[in-house]
Structures are given as structure tokens and as C-alpha cells.
Amino acid sequence: MTMAIENDAQQLIDTYLKSLRTKLRGLNRDDINEIIEELRSHIQDKAASSGELTVAGVREALAALGSAEELAREYATDALLARAEFSRSPLRVLDSLFRWASLSAAGFLVLVSTVVGYFLGGAFMWCAVLKLVHPRTAGLWLIPLSDGGFAISLRMGFGSPPIDGRELLGWWILPLGLIGGCALVVLTTRFALWSARQYRRSHLLPQA
Amino acid sequence: MKEGDRDGEVADKWEVQLRKGCLELAILAALWGGKLYGLEILRRLESDSDLIVSEGTVYPLLSRLKALGLVRSEWVESESGHPRKYYALTAAGKHRAVEMATTWARFSSSMGKLLAPLGKGR
Questions:
Q1: What is the pTM of this model?
Q2: Closest partner CB to B38 (pick from A38, A66, A82)
Q3: What single DSSP character describes residue B74?
Q4: ipTM greater than 0.85, yes or no?
Q5: Side-chain half-sphere exposure of A166, counting CA atoms within 13 A
Q6: CA nearest A34 in B: which residue?
Q7: Weakest mean pLDDT among A25-29, A72-76, B27-31
Q8: CB-side exposure of B116: number of CA atoms within 13 Å?
Q9: How confident is the model over A91-128, as pLDDT tens digits?
């Protein structure tokens, strides 16, 4: 009888940890194994504090840990912050953001904004470099629209220049594109890390 | 009545923020006396400080402190039949803990001066 209860309790633990393992997918495999084994040990200690592993004890221990999804989110944002302390390379930041985005809506919004930020930053830098190759066509252009309005277009210089368009920066695109593009990339990285930190803080303790 | 409720809510939020800010220092301080495993750290925080910490928070935070090189971990077999993951401060972790404790003491003493008149007024 006791054996059957212990089996049920073990099964509950296994189900929870299996679900957590699925949600942690993307993190380093060794790290995932460590996390799972550490939490298994924690749940067993907590649930068997009276001496025996009981179903009620396991349920209580799991409730105190929170949902597998919430826990996975905490690990994902912490992994992002820890990695960022060592390397602020956009690729690393994006890689971590993809994991965060798969776990929460907040992560997804931050990911989208970050992708846009990096894309614009990269485009400005790329345009500055291509100005050397396409001096007459690459740059920031003001193009008149048929409805009387204007559109601003960052052109890499492939193809012919837009009809009636006016180039705004001339050779200034070279320093401005490089400095502005770099600044945008740095600011985007900071924004991503700041968001992760804010998210982390708001989930640190149960709300009062 | 409503005004009072809102005041209480603002005060609660402030207290939560205050506790959150202390958590990293509290964990490093809990490990000062020697290695502990996760549940022991949680119990130490509960008994020796006023920090009510959600369990699902401490483990990810410990893995972050480890990734930062402030703590190291090792698995130790226990008499309960399963191994436990023990954490201990690294040299960098000790240094950081002392640094944070110094800042804390300085801040707390200067706030103490500022807050002294409030105590007399109660």
C-alpha cells in the first residue's frame, strides 16, 4: 500500500519535471539536467519532511514551486542576464530572446522590438558602407508620393535613383550611418537587457 | 476608506521592492558560514531574515549567481537516499558579499540619521 502511494507521488514529480524539461528546451543540455535533478531533490526533501513521500506532500511542494511554465520563464530570463554579463553580442542576445519569447508574451514583444532595432541599426551601417560603392544612389532619400506626401527611404544604391527623389545626407551618411547604426545596436541591446531585468524583478517575489 | 486602501497598497509595493533588492545579498550572506543546499538556503532566509521568498525564485537566482562565478556547486550524497546540490561562495562571491554588505551598512547608517527624528515622533 505504502509502495503504491510512493509510486503515485513519484509519478506526480516525474510529470511536473517532464513538463519543465520540455519548456526549458533551448537551454544548454547539461544545464537542463542539473536544473531537473536539483528540483527533483528539492521536491523529494520538501515532500518527505515528515519521513515518507506522500501524494499530498508532493502536491504541496509543487504548488510552492509554482507552475512549470513560470519556473521555465525565470530560468530563461536569468540565463539571458547571466550570458549578457559576459557577452553583449547581438547574436547572443537574440538567441536568448528567442527562448524567452517562446515562454511569454512580454518576451515576444521585446524580441520583436529588438529585431526591429538591430535591423535598422544594421541597415544604417550597411548603407554607410555601400555609399562608397554606390556614391550616387546609396543614402537617405526623400521621395515624393503621388498623393502629395513624402516618403523617407534608406536606399542601398542598387538600381537607378528614385525619380524626383532628393538625397538628404550626401556623404554625411558615412559618419552618421556608422555612428547612428552602432548607437542603435547598443541602445537596442540595452533595452533588451533592461526589459529582461524589469521582468525578472517583477517576478522575483510573490506580489504583496 | 478608498484613499486608505491605496496608501496601504503603495506601502506594500514599496516593501516588496525593498525585499527584492536585498535578495542577492541575503543569499550570499546565507552562504557565508559554509555550503548549503537550496532548501537550506530557503529555510535560512525564512528564519534569519524577514524575506518571504517564493521557492521558484531562489533556484533560478542561484543558477545565475553560479553563471556569474559568485557561487560554485557540488552534488553530495545524502542519508535521505538522493544527492543534494550544495552551493558555496567563490572568492569572487565573498568579495562581492563584503562589498554589498559595506554598501548596505553605509546606506543604512546614513538613512538611520535621517530617520531618527521620525522614531521620536511616533
A1: 0.68
A2: A38
A3: E
A4: no
A5: 5
A6: B85
A7: A25-29
A8: 5
A9: 878 887 887 787 778 889 999 999 999 999 999 999 99
User: What are A142-193's pLDDT values in tens digits?
Assistant: 988 888 888 888 989 888 888 788 888 889 999 999 999 999 999 999 999 8
Mutate to test the interface with B, among A70, A80, A205 (most CBs of B within 10 A): A205
SS3 category, B89: strand
| Residue A52, all three cell numbers | 515518507
Instruction: Please say whether the beta carbons of A156 and A127 come within 8 A.
Output: yes
What would the mean pLDDT of B97-117 be, rounded to a whole number?
Answer: 93
* Angstrom distance (rounded) from CA A91 to CA B81: 43
Please say whether the beta carbons of A124 and A184 come within 8 A.
Answer: yes
How far is it, in rounded angstroms, from Cα A26 to Cα A29?
Answer: 8
What is the pLDDT at residue B29? 96
Q: Tell me which chain A residues have a C-beta less than 8 angstroms from the C-beta of B15.
A: 208
Helix B55-67, helix B2-30: angle, nearest 10: 40
d(CA B45, CA B38): 11
Question: Residue A35: its chain B contacts at CB < 8 A?
Answer: 59, 63
- CB-nearest to B59 from A31, A39, A85 is A39
Instruction: List the grid coordinates of B110.
Output: 546614513
pLDDT digits (tens, 9 = 90+) for A9-34: 899 999 999 999 998 887 888 989 99
What is the maximal distance between C-alpha atoms in chain B? 57
Identify which of A46, A67, A70 has the alpha carbon closest to the alpha carbon of residue B38: A46
Angle at A64 between CA A63 and CA A66, to 5 degrees: 65
Cell 511554465 sits on residue: A69
- Within 8 A of B10 by CB-CB distance, chain A residues are none
Cα–Cα separations (whole angstroms), residue A202 to A65, A73, A199, A206, B26: 17, 12, 5, 9, 18
The Cα angle at residue A147 between residues A141 and A150, in degrees rounded to 5: 20
**DSSP assignment of A18-61:** HHHHHHTBTB-HHHHHHHHHHHHHHHHHHHTTTSS--HHHHHHH
Which residue of A lies nearest to B16 if distances are taken between CA atoms? A208
